[in-house]
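User: Hey, quick favor. My workstation is busy. Could you predict this chain's structure for me?
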Amino acid sequence: MSKLVIVESPAKAKTIKKYLGTGYEVVASMGHIRDLNPNRLSVDIKKKFAPKYEIIKGKEKLADDLVKLAGKSDYVYLATDPDREGEAISWHLAYLLNLDLNDTNRVTFNEITKKGVTDGMAAPRKIDIDLVDAQQARRILDRLVGYKLSPFLSQKIRKGLSAGRVQSVAVKIIMDRERKIRAFKPEEYWSIDAKFIPKGSRRVFPAQFYGDAGGKIDIRSSEQAQSILNALADTQPFVEKLRHGTRKRQPAPPFITSTLQQEASRKLGFQSKRTMKVAQELYEGIDIQGMGAVGLITYMRTDSLRLSEDALQAAEEYIRNKWGEKYLPASGHRHFKSRSNAQDGHEAIRPTTVDLEPSSIKQSLTSDQYKLYKLIWERFIACQMAECIHKTTQADINASGYIFKASGYKVDFDGYTVLYVEGSDNNDEEKESELPPLEKDMPLKVKEIQPNQHFTQPPARFTEASLIKALEENGIGRPSTYAATISTITSREYVKRENKTLFPTELGEVTNKLMEERFPKIVNVKFTAQMEQNLDTVEEGKYGWVELLTDFYGDFEATLKQAKEDMKGVKIELEEDKTDLVCDKCGKPMVVKFGRYGKFIACSGYPDCKNIVKLVNVVSGIACPKCGGDVIVRKTKRGREFFGCMNYPDCNFISWYQPTSEQCPQCGGVLFKKKGKKPLLFCPAEGCGYAADDEQNEAPEIRQVVVPQKSESGGVKADTAASAAE
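Assistant: No problem, here it is.
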């Protein structure tokens, strides 16, 4: 007989099993085992919002297996993730396995290392019901908002729309920024930029016009700029004032969830969803050559800046051995203060083992894992290093009574910047450079004086990084939800991503306008932030979850009822749903519709005319290996992409891998692309076995094409191929 330990993922189970050894069986619940039915409200509002949980579809066998394993075990430990969601999963497992909630069978691991697992197993506790209640309150709150509002939006605007407690506010924040951009009126201003050369030197340095002895002068027109230039003709500039100083730059704190997502966006170009996926892998454990499965980072869902003394000591020793004593802070270990409403249950995100340098384990990691681990490792080490010291120089240059200012610095001690410098959202940030040696009253030569016209710029559109920062600063959602929120608003096409910037679509604008007019509380930033604080209060045991839902729902239900009454028979038309196509059966305009598998084009005369055509994504320059037709990208019911032939069902070519235009050098067949840590070109022909590195690894060019949709009488419905691939 053994002790059973239940975690959430197989990767985590494998790593923990390595540390627990014999006598323990470690299995995965594969995330949540019970949840609200996705097709029903599953909340009995009249019975104090009682949730109706059920085994998640497809997990019935897993549930049965867990029950059997628990029955054979001496003891069951619930070791799901150490947060609200993990606590709720443990609570659901306790219900499923008929475990006593008073048992001390709940264990948590801040890091999946031998020490982390040993410490966790040595301190079992009861399931934290306050934490569970906070998760239930959030889950039911989101279900009520989504389930009640989404059908209303679908009816009034477009089928398939959704609303959400956090996502709707995120769209509003983006829309508010867009309104500011549209309302912005640029104002003209001028700068006068000069280049001077010190006497006896060849070094040129820049300086900017400031004003005169009376103070700063703002130049608003070309005439004003020209007047100053005329006064500067044949000027004999000299250094009027000179100030030397010291500037100390402190390292950035270690990562929390939100700052990790921001920095990965800035430096690596990762979307937040991608960042969290890779961070989860690093936390749960990676097979490291010669070491086996190792959890490389601490828990990645945290908003605490706390660091353990063991970690601080390890960082100190590493820095001392690598760079020497002078690279350590004079005041000892650095401690960082968390936000006032931060949950302090976990440490900041840091490497579990400082000595595992990114370069030493690079061969065991995928490209994404290596990049993110390197970012986390460097940020943590840098936060415990000495400050960077700049020697600064500021000069006031007098030219015919007008003042130009020049500033620069040189690095006196590089400190933490020898390893890491935090990224910035402002790519146009000016970089100072070192000034040549200057002395008071030193005469200067004029190399160039140039007027430049400028116009004030509107506020920048949000990037993922700056949106996450805005959500966090406003107290909207939790850091662990930001990735899902951004993924939802982009997949629903409320927001589009262009390069790195996010901007609202017409659909997002119309939906937000309706929400602002009819459900102002739901999209009110302060109200949503207060709701988040209320959930924290539930977690602290100071506010009942039923009370929270009761306080919210009465006003919400009345508002929804009034909106339905006021908008009875109203349908909002979208410009972007119109096309230039005309129905070839009845002559009416064709419009864009949204179905289960994406966009298609239908006759606006429906239901009198049921003519439809389909938008398909064709891979440019690639021919079907079987019939030579166009290769198209399709999706299964679960959203996984695959490749098929445009001529389906006459041609049944289907592949998870993208065919290419290249031929196999061994058998002459078509080569396919295989993504992964090392992208490959391979030949699937039986008995061939050819494979080579895909050195270019370029993404295929995709173009959208309209094709006729086969009728049911023709024997084929849309997306039969998706079912076949599934």
